[in-house]
Predict the structure.
Amino acid sequence: MISPYIVTIIASWLVAQGAKYVVAVIKNRTFRAFRHFYISGNMPSAHSATVVSVATLIGCREGFGSAIFGLALTLAGIVMYDAVMVRRSVGEQGLAIRAIIEAAHNKLLFPRSAKGHTPVEVLVGAGVGVVIGYVVFIATR
């Protein structure tokens, strides 16, 4: 039998990335948004969903006072902080650099720069993670 921890990682990643595709389809009014199945950034944060689902499953199985849950919660906090503060800043800087280069050369040099997350995207991803982690816990009791 496959580990419930692996199941929650895969399930939360697939649900979050699938949700990105659905959001893009609604926003762009086209089903040709396939890149949203694998890109980083946008709504919801798959990284947040994944680490929170694992932390939720650990908390449910091992106890919310356990050392391993504390470690998982710390890791989740670092990943979510990084998504909002570091990766988002890098993405904004990438957009600015791209605009400067494109203005100087008067052409589009590369179509997309890396993007971080807004706080709402991270919170929604974390919510997805809590739900998936709890569902996997219930399903594997």
Notes: The mean pLDDT is 87.
